[in-house]
Amino acid sequence: MSGCAYNWIVEEEVIDPGDPDAPEVSFSSEIVPIFSSKCVSCHSTGNQAPDLTPENAYSSLNTSRYINTSDPASSLIYTKPSPTGSHVKYSEAEAALVLTWITQGAQNN
Ligand code: HEC
């Protein structure tokens, strides 16, 4: 009756965007910090679009130009910084978080 032998296994750090049971990704606490650390140096208010500052990121992105919830992997906010492009890139874990957030409906959460 003791607990499952595998209880101690730590959760994977890279979230699986295809997992319907994936924990809900928070835009404000998980996505905005990515933008703040590696995007706002160029994508700030009045500079290169989209404006990814914490106060404007959601409204900048909440358009069909950047987000396609019916085909999340084609969203420009996911594809532009992809690990294979020439633009500044997301890490694998960051890309997975962004894709999961879009897959979950791109909420302002
Ligand atoms: C060193 C400056 C720089 C940084 C840092 C940077 N970008 Fe960019 N980004 C640009 C420039 C310049 C363009 C426009 C040229 C182009 O499309 O490649 C651009 C274009 C984009 C576009 C397409 C805009 C459009 O409307 O076509 C998106 C989306 C984007 N960046 C997202 C990001 C994200 C997310 C990050 C952080 C992971 C980021 N960028 C970091 C310079 C930067």
Spans of 5+ residues with little confidence (pLDDT < 50)? Answer: none
- Give the averaged pLDDT, no decimals: 91
* Overall number of domains: 1
Task: Give a short account of the largest sheet.
Answer: none
Number of strands: 0
**Head-to-tail CA distance between termini:** 40 Å
Shape descriptor reads globular
Number of helices: 4
Which value, in Å, is the CA radius of gyration? 16 Å
Can you give me a brief rundown of this structure?
The chain has 109 residues and is mainly alpha-helical. 30% of the residues lie in helices and 0% in strands. The chain has helices at residues 27-38, 57-61, 76-79, 92-103.
Could you explain the architecture of this structure?
This protein has 109 residues and is mostly helical. It has one domain (27-103). The protein has helices at residues 27-38, 57-61, 76-79, 92-103. Helix 1 (27-38) packs across helix 4 (92-103). The radius of gyration is 16 Å and the shape is globular. The N and C termini lie far apart (40 Å). The protein binds heme C (HEC).
Please name the defining characteristics of this protein:
single chain; 109 residues; mainly alpha; 4 helices; binds heme C
Q: What is the topological layout?
A:
Blueprint: H1 27-38, H2 57-61, H3 76-79, H4 92-103
This protein binds heme C.
Heme C (HEC) binds at residues 38-39, 41-43, 48-50, 65-66, 76-77, 80-81, 87-88, 90.
